[in-house]
Amino acid sequence: MSPVSEKSSSDDGIDRIISSEALDESKVFASSGDRLIEQGSYNIAVYMYDEALKFAPADTTILLSRSLAHMLSDPPAINAAHNDVKQCLELDPKNWQAWQLKGDLLMREDNFKDAEPAFRNAIAYSKGMDKVRAQRSLADARSKAGAAIAVGSGTTGLRRNASIVRRPVPRQEPDVVPPAAAPAPSETQTPVEAVTTQLEEVSIRPEDQEPAPSQRCESPHYKTI
């Protein structure tokens, strides 16, 4: 009679045989990784999960834990986190935590559009408070997606306005009226001669002249006594 070995089957039909000893080793490393995540030592936790997956490569729980550690490590290893989530969904397409973590990773990349279907799948496969969490994540993704579209539209409008070249309007100076020039003196006359000529041209009427002394005696108002 052949010995009975522990089997782990996945939804994709692939069966992996894991010995009891290997399973125990996997749990030891995975537990260490969980404690390190709680302490915030994400980079060291990744190493522990690496060791755990050597003994249980198809353990979706360890894959998701390592994906979370990759996402929170310094610097974040987003691509490695995506790879773990992808592998987990290949093993278990209805794993709501995998869909939730995929949406969280896409949100960190500001890919709100692709995060929405991931959160919808998380809602479909979750229950109770887990479903509430997925619903909140979906609402947050939709809100940020709408805000990103609004900001993008505003930026496009600013770029369009900036592309319009506005020519400066020339400054209009006020019209300056030059003072009237004085008449130039005759070329044949000096300035003094010109003034004398003007005085000579003034005519004096006889009635404006003051009477001579001889004429005053003849006036009835000046009779000689």
Q: Top keywords for this entry?
A:
225 residues, mainly alpha, Serine Threonine Protein Phosphatase 5, Tetratricopeptide repeat, two-stranded antiparallel ribbon, 9 helices, elongated, disordered C terminus
Structure write-up:
Helix 2 (42-55) packs antiparallel against helix 3. Residues 1-8 and 212-225 have low confidence and may be disordered. Among the domains are: 8-93, Tetratricopeptide repeat domain (Serine Threonine Protein Phosphatase 5, Tetratricopeptide repeat, Alpha Horseshoe), CATH 1.25.40.10; 95-158, no CATH class. It is mainly alpha-helical and 225 residues long. The protein has nine helices and two strands, in the order ββααααααααα. The protein has a two-stranded antiparallel sheet with strand order 1-2. It has helices spanning 20-39, 42-55, 60-72, 78-91, 96-108, 112-125, 128-162, 191-200, 213-218; strands at residues 7-9, 15-17. The radius of gyration is 53 Å and the shape is elongated.
The gist of it:
With about 220 residues, the chain is an all-alpha fold. It is built from nine helices and two strands, in the order E-E-H-H-H-H-H-H-H-H-H. Among the domains are: about 90 residues, Serine Threonine Protein Phosphatase 5, Tetratricopeptide repeat; about 60 residues, no CATH class.
Overall form:
elongated
Q: Which CATH architecture of one domain would you pick? A: Alpha Horseshoe
Uncertain segments are 1-8, 212-225
Order of SSEs: EEHHHHHHHHH
CATH superfamily of one domain: Tetratricopeptide repeat domain
* Strands in their spatial order, largest beta sheet: 1-2
